Amino acid sequence: MDSDRQSDLVSVAVVSSLYVAAQLLSNVTSLRILMIAGFSMDAGTLIYPFTFTLRDLVHKTGGIKVARAVVITAATANLFMAGLYWLVARLPPDMGVGAQLEFGRVLSPTWRLVIASIVAQIASELVDGQVYQAWVNKVGHKLQWMRVLTSNSVSVPLDSALFCSLAFIGRMPFLVVVSIFWANVILKGITTLVSLPWIYLVKERKAA
Question: What is the C-alpha to C-alpha distance for residues 154 and 207, in angstroms, rounded to an integer?
């Protein structure tokens, strides 16, 4: 295997691993609710918005088929993780060790939130891929930052709309859900702007 090919495979492996890790970490840390600047938010919001740009890095290094596979893999891993947490929370604890019941309650997933998160992730990230690929097909390899901004501008609101609708409508007043939606869109939009330069850190996938 020539060195360029090996380097390309390493790039795909690294950015794919970072994407999946960010997805898993965002779901784990979402168990913690923070108060920042007067707004209540789950801690997963600190890392989840970066997954949209990381998906674009996977797409750039591996192509759309690899990006789709990584998105589905991350969603499957998140579902497996939630199921494992559910099982661990229900197995009998060793009461000789402190705070086992409390730890089990923390781990036990809220399935409506889990399903809402996974559905929103799959739908928005796959749409992100279509928009990203359409930009590349039309514009080519110029203005790489713009392809990230364009794809994220579609996928970020879609992700927030799906998650807020599936997770909160019927449980919270509609205006509160709308407020959560806009807070998510604004934060994810800021994160997109911060992470735009990342697209220049990896090489474009060579055509087969």
Answer: 26
What is the DSSP track for 75-138? HHHHHHHHHHHHHHHHSPP-TTSTTHHHHHHHHS--HHHHHHHHHHHHHHHHHHHHHHHHHHHH
Name the 3-class secondary structure at 183: helix
What's the CATH number where 177 sits? 1.10.1760
Rounded CA-CA distance 46/5 in Å is 34
Of the candidates 171, 172, 114, 124, the residue with the CA atom closest to the CA atom of residue 151:
124
Give the tens place of pLDDT for each residue, 74-90.
999 999 999 998 898 88
Per the structure block, which two tokens stand in for 206? 């060579």
* Among the listed residues 137, 127, 186, the one whose alpha carbon sits nearest the alpha carbon of residue 160: 186
Phi, psi of 33 (to 5 degrees): -100, 125
Residue 185: CB partners within 8 Å, gap ≥ 6? Answer: 156, 157, 160
Tens digit of each residue's pLDDT (9 = 90 or more) over 100-137? 777 777 777 778 888 999 999 999 999 999 999 999 99
Question: Angle 44-146-132 (CA atoms, 0-180°, nearest 5)?
Answer: 70
> For residue 84, is it within any domain?
yes
- Per the structure, how many domains does the chain have? 1
Structural domain span for residue 133: 3-201
